[in-house]
Amino acid sequence: MKVLKFGGTSVANPENINQVKAIIQNEASEKIAVVVSAFGGVTDLLLNTSEYASNQDLSYKKGFKEIEDRHFETIRKLIPVKEQSTILSKVKSDLNTLETLLEGSFLIGELTPKLSDKIVSYGELLSSFIIAEFFKAEGLDAAYKDTRELIKTDANFGKANVQFDTTVHNCNAYFKTAQQRITILPGFVSSSGANDSTTLGRGGSDYTAAIIAAAEKVDILEIWTDVSGMYTANPKLVKQAKSVSRLSYEEAMELSHFGAKVLYPPTIQPVLNEGIPIVIKNTFSPEDEGTQITKNTNGNGKTVRGISHVGGISLLSLEGPGMVGIPGISKRFFETLSQEDISVVLITQASSEHSICVCISDTDVEKAVNSVNDAFTYEIASHKIKPVIVEKDLAIVALVGDNMKSHQGLSGKMFSTLGKNNVNIRAIAQGASERNISAVILKNDVKKALNALHEIFFEENIKQLNLFVMGVGNVGSKFLDQIKQQRKYLKQELKLNVRVIGISNSRTMYFDEDGISLKDWESNLANGKKADKSLFFDKIRELNYRNSVFVDNTASEEVSLSYAKYLKNSISVVTCNKIACSSDYTYYKQLKKLATQYNSPFLFETNVGAGLPIIDTLKHLIASGDKVNKIQAVLSGSLNFIFNNFNDSVSFHDIVKQAQEEGYTEPDPTIDLSGVDVMRKILILARESGHQLDMNEIVSDSFLPEESLKTNSNDEFFETLKKNETEFQKTYKDAKDENSKLKYVAQFENGKAKVGLQKIPIGHDFYNLEGSDNIVLFYTERYPDQPLIIKGAGAGAEVTASGIFADIIRIGNF
Ligand code: ADP
Ligand code: ASP
Ligand code: MG
């Protein structure tokens, strides 16, 4: 014999029930027992409706009507017309009783657990009856059996305890004589000694099936549901989760106990005792292998088999100096909870015995706090123990696997992964069996924690990076192009899955929680919501994705001032915007500190020399113990372009104009020509070398006339250039007469920085600098005479985008 159980979704509607029929028809076993749940959603509906009734809220009638319609409609769709009337009248009569019960509850304004069980049992009673009639009408050799006549329990309504001896006896007696091949039975329901309907707890149809399977010592118990087995994590929260083909009973028990809803936890015990395998299968994809649960499987050598979580958890802590070394405190604590029938999900105790923490369900908190505070009234009054401390809105995530005990470092890996993702761990516990390591975390962090852990333990170490890109103009759009082009490579070679989740320009913003398609982001963005910098941030925080990176491709001061709040929420920041790093030293320092504190890198390689690895190199020098003595650099691609092309046959005005038009300058060219841009860059290099410096301490020797610096528009500015052409030509001629070239040089030495135009003689490292190239010479203790030189294209959208890209990869390797 074989037992098959079909859950709520599997029998949710006529179409699905037909699917169930197909599975049953394919079944080769000689005899089968088919346990079914209520039609999907009906149990909740019954419970809500009875709640309304007992609150004397007339909307219970609406709920009842909905229940009635669901069942009538299913009968009309499944059963041939000529056979409908008897079935409809039997169901109608049951529904009348149900209505009377609800009405009774409405009139007296009360819902006892006993009445609640009676009401809720109609879900399974009706579904199983209708399905049995349908199978019969389809010519299957099927009969209906009311499980309440088989499974006997105590009178603990809502979650009754099974009396196995009587139950086994009843089952044996019934199946021994049953003639039909297929027996259809309602799950979840049972009856007490006094023959009142009882239920086995939410999700209890799995348990019904297991009880019958064990009683009849069947060959196999199949749980048919809406997923293809027990997954490495809840597939609704972790997209990458995969079905695990084999699990041991103990592993399955731990996983289900810690929230893998696919199997109701008590289900395993009865079949484990008899060594009956459980197979979890997908009604909607029957060809999938599913999960087989048997005695020790050795886990195919794998350590962590699944990650599960339970929500709705509160942490109670009992602490105080009076607890140390005094026996009996924990006994009294647990006794109090047990007397109140409060189930303890997890326990931790500090070895100092100074505190005991337990996790309980949120719904038990009030009861627990009152009873424990009562039980310790004396100790609390005499300050030996503090009143119970409660933390709500928590969840437990647990790693489960039989083989975990023989491996070191798993908890280290688990906690460091959670830490890196800034998941705050409130308590931890590891069972002595070492089959389970649990962490208590905030409810809001569950999705992030599960995904981060899943990535580390199951996904060949592919790390997902979630990017939020602000600014998709010149640089930003090139950056998106580069990601699009390199995605496959990054995944295959660097094990990085780079996804762009949000983008924004100054007009609109657009999000796709599954990753924006980089083929048509432009049209999606154009049709996106109105851009709003603060809503952009709110959305990122709300999504709470692991490895979130905010990419700033703007030149906006407002955006640069928002970095702190990103970092504080563990969102890394990558920016080509120089404002933050060249603003107040305290802000720069604060950002660096936050980055360390919140494990969220703050990277700005492109602030100096676009894509050239200048800052990264400097960081490595410093980290390895070197000291920077002097930096000499040509850091402005724009000024370099201008002075490389300026001579006595063209006007300075025209060259600057050309540079602006070709995108070599900032939109406001004075930022480049006044030297501010170069000052910012040398400031950043000085700071990255470990020096405290501010903009106003940098000496700037401007080559521009005073009036050019005071203009209010680009037009005015260009006018002044025309006016002062003779001055510019003179500067050029002076340099030429000395066989030198003009370069705008930044220098940092002995804690002081200066910038200005210099005449560079032949033979100098700067002399042959082409086009818009940048060059930096680092004179350090290790490179005292021959400097370390970095040289190359230092401006342009493409190289800047690649510099940002490099920062993203650095975060990937972080
Ligand atoms: P049924 O109605 O068939 O009994 P349930 O809703 O009780 O189905 O259980 C199946 C659901 O369990 C899945 O749809 C899934 O959302 C959830 N679930 C949670 N954790 C896991 C897990 N680790 N593996 C598979 N499913 C899980
Ligand atoms: N119908 C019950 C519930 O929803 C039992 C089950 O489906 O397992 O809890
Ligand atoms: Mg279930």
Automatic annotation (TrEMBL):
As for what it does, the entry says: Bifunctional aspartate kinase and homoserine dehydrogenase that catalyzes the first and the third steps toward the synthesis of lysine, methionine and threonine from aspartate.
Give the keywords, sorted: Amino-acid biosynthesis, ATP-binding, Kinase, Lysine biosynthesis, Metal-binding, Methionine biosynthesis, Multifunctional enzyme, NAD, NADP, Nucleotide-binding, Oxidoreductase, Sodium, Threonine biosynthesis, Transferase
Q: Name one GO biological process term.
A: threonine biosynthetic process
Catalyses which reaction?
A: L-homoserine + NADP(+) = L-aspartate 4-semialdehyde + NADPH + H(+); L-aspartate + ATP = 4-phospho-L-aspartate + ADP; L-homoserine + NAD(+) = L-aspartate 4-semialdehyde + NADH + H(+)
Domain ACT, residue spans:
399-477
What Gene Ontology molecular-function terms does this entry list? Answer: aspartate kinase activity; ATP binding; homoserine dehydrogenase activity; metal ion binding; NADP binding
Its cofactor is:
a metal cation
Q: Quote the subunit structure annotation.
A: Homotetramer.
Q: In which pathway does it act?
A: Amino-acid biosynthesis; L-threonine biosynthesis; L-threonine from L-aspartate: step 1/5; Amino-acid biosynthesis; L-methionine biosynthesis via de novo pathway; L-homoserine from L-aspartate: step 3/3; Amino-acid biosynthesis; L-threonine biosynthesis; L-threonine from L-aspartate: step 3/5; Amino-acid biosynthesis; L-methionine biosynthesis via de novo pathway; L-homoserine from L-aspartate: step 1/3
What family is reported? In the N-terminal section; belongs to the aspartokinase family. In the C-terminal section; belongs to the homoserine dehydrogenase family.
* UniProt protein name: Aspartate kinase
Task: Please report the organism this UniProt entry assigns to the protein.
Answer: Flagellimonas maritima
Instruction: State the EC number(s).
Output: 2.7.2.4
The enzyme's first-digit EC class, named in words, is transferase
Q: Does the keyword Metal-binding apply?
A: yes
